[in-house]
TrEMBL record:
This is Protein ABHD18. It comes from the Eukaryota. The lineage of its organism: Eukaryota, Viridiplantae, Streptophyta, Embryophyta, Tracheophyta. Coiled coil: none annotated. It comes from Panicum virgatum. Pfam families: ABHD18.
Length: 366
């Protein structure tokens, strides 16, 4: 009888999935149009304002007034969709594609219960999550616990995706920071709306993978205790793009040529810039690591109630190594890490109950 190591199977499945999706070169890679020029310079300055040494944390955030329409309702629940102007700084709005200027949100609530007796959790999108559907399925069963679900559509995704972008592959490095900064600003405004306008008693923020990174940042910056639930999330975008599977889906040659062209422009070189300046792929990777270090959650403040922070990691994740999850807990003493058996991809489908339990438990600690 042959013994099968299921952990290894899950790990291998992550890499097979990554190979089919990223290494076959059938689709457009990440950052196929380079660094983003002056947009990247702007984003690097503005993202630094989120860190604890910044003088202003922008609270309260810009108020939102979503225009709601009812999608469906039953005797016990209601689903509405809302639209509002992104709450980003005007400089960021100018940098965002026009398709991303208006934010979309789905709001699934129990009926016949007042908000102050309920909780609401804002769900943020992981890479490639273009619709509301998956996160609504995750949140739907929580209605029986009197927990409402609010699902935010990220810039560059779904109906906010630029017309020239294919799938989830962002065209510039600056797009990744723009997506993150806009998502954080919009999520903070939605939490403020839930508290001041809708009157919810307890609130939380959660997300899967990339959405988990953004959720951790939002939870860190919120001025009062909220449940914070990063699922299958690294401590930084450096992990998937420079160490994990996404490094095979990144247009390194394009980034190298773009870096060389910038140098050529600055120094007025006339020969081939990449050859003249001697820029190597490893130098380009170091530059990307430096830029993406701005997403390092361990640099963010400890949330107001770290006991209401629950990280959920996968034991055999081919995308997010165990050490990256543990970095998060180390940075936020008092938080909890839970492990589900499986890989990154399989856990998306197999462990919704574990994610829901983490949400219920974290809200109970408020």
């Amino acid at each position: 009888m042959v013994s099968v190591n299921l952990g290894l199977v899950h790990y291998v499945l992550d890499h097979i999935y990554g190979t089919l999706l990223h290494r076959t070169k059938l689709g457009t890679p990440f950052f196929s149009k380079g660094w983003g020029g002056t947009k990247l310079d702007l984003l690097e300055r503005m993202v630094k304002q989120l860190f604890p040494e910044a003088h202003c944390q922008n609270w309260p955030p810009t108020a939102v007034h979503p225009m709601w329409k009812t999608v469906w309702e039953t005797n016990s629940s209601c689903l509405r969709e809302g639209v509002f102007r992104t709450t980003c700084d005007e400089r960021l709005i100018d940098a965002l594609p026009p398709e991303s200027h208006n934010a979309r949100v789905a709001f699934l609530t129990p009926k016949n219960i007042t908000p102050e007796k309920m909780a609401c959790v804002v769900h943020l999108a992981g890479t490639g999550d273009h619709t509301f559907e998956r996160r609504l399925r995750l949140g739907g069963p929580l209605l029986k616990n009197n927990i409402a679900t609010m699902v935010l559509e990220s810039p560059y995704y779904g109906q906010r995706r630029p017309s020239m972008q294919r799938g989830a592959k962002l065209q510039c490095v600056s797009d990744l920071l723009l997506l993150g900064k806009a998502t954080i600003d919009e999520a903070r405004s939605l939490l403020y709306w839930l508290q001041t306008e809708a009157g919810y008693g307890k609130m939380g923020i959660c997300g899967l993978s990339m959405g988990g990174v953004h959720a951790a940042m939002v939870g860190s910056l919120h001025p009062t205790p909220i449940a914070t639930l990063p699922f299958l999330a690294p401590h930084s975008a450096v992990v998937p793009f420079c160490e994990g599977v996404y490094k095979y889906a990144t247009a390194w040659d394009v980034l190298r040529e773009d870096a060389a062209a910038i140098t050529q422009h600055v120094t007025s070189l006339t020969e081939d810039a990449a050859q003249k300046t001697g820029i190597t792929i490893e130098q380009v990777r170091d530059r990307l690591r430096s830029v993406l270090s701005l997403t390092d959650v361990t640099r963010f403040p400890v949330p107001k109630n770290p006991q209401a922070v629950i990280f959920v990691g996968a034991t055999d994740d081919g995308y997010i190594p165990r050490h990256s999850v543990m970095e998060l807990q180390k940075a936020w003493p008092g938080s909890e890490v839970r492990w589900v058996t499986g890989g990154h991809v399989s856990s998306f489908f197999l462990h919704n109950d574990a994610f829901r339990k983490a949400i219920v438990d974290a809200l109970d600690r408020l």
